[in-house]
Amino acid sequence: MKDDSVKQRTYRREREFLSPYACRSEQSRGRLHEEEPCNMRTDFQRDRDRIIYSKAFLRLKNKTQVFFSPEGDHFRTRMTHTIDVSQIARSIARSLALNEDLAEAIALGHDLGHTPFGHAGERVLNSLASCGFSHNVQSLRVVDVLEKEGKGLNLTFEVRDGILNHKKSGHPATLEGKAVSLADRIAYVNHDIEDAIRAGLLREEELPENDVKVLGHSSRDRINRMITSIYENSAGKNDVKMGDAEAEALEHLRSFMFEKVYITPLSMKEEERAKRMLGAVYEYFYNNIEKLPPFYRSLTEKWPIEQVLCDYLSSMTDKFAVAVFNNLFVPRSWALTEKDIEELD
User: What is the total count of domains within the chain?
Assistant: First the structure.
């Protein structure tokens, strides 16, 4: 008798409709540790659900994307950036008949290891720890080691690989991973432009004329043009890539944003504040390991203290990092109580 479970129907649809270059769910290279499969969901669908319900994912809503504690409800956070990436990655995957479930799972997990205060926090931790710090490597550590009180999420190889290799310098093993890598760059460049204009740091007419001519004047037009370019240059091929003109324009816009928004006297002033604050917290716990929360203290039995401090500090939201700093270094009458700190955790 033919198995007609929900999962088997998904497998059949994938065999029938996905590109021959797509990663089919039933062909996954498996998990770090064997476990009983779900009767209804594929492994990639389970991975997506595990990420969504993880503590690290929930914390993304209170982590900076570009602007520290922006005034206004419509600036992006690390959470909304992640959702943006997921949507763009799914659009790319759908157009190329790739595995949308896999692309979505990678996209939702790609920034789980990001620090408070955006890339400024990442640069600070990288300078403090001799072991170095990179958010993509930390994101993999979150899903492998830190979630579920040290048990990890036990994700599939394909999702873990996509998370680790989502940066431009990475080399994902699947086309879905390549789609997420491109989606990440498309999302943050275009949506950071929107936020910078909203914040009054940029005017639309300041955007490079040649790049706007290639990609479009609005964020919607630019994203649509780039996704279309990926389809036109990748359909029916064992690759996911953008056309040369669009890729060059995107890289120019990215460089423009570094010059005008990411690395400016104003942003560097804020980064210096983040550096002093995170540096002080790092040094305090380095010299007072017994003051770490019990979970992180237990990690020092297996991992170097510098790695554990990166684990702890990168897990913090912006507000929690400020609260911990205040609790450690601001006179008690001004600081939050320990009960307040516990409620923020």
Answer: 1
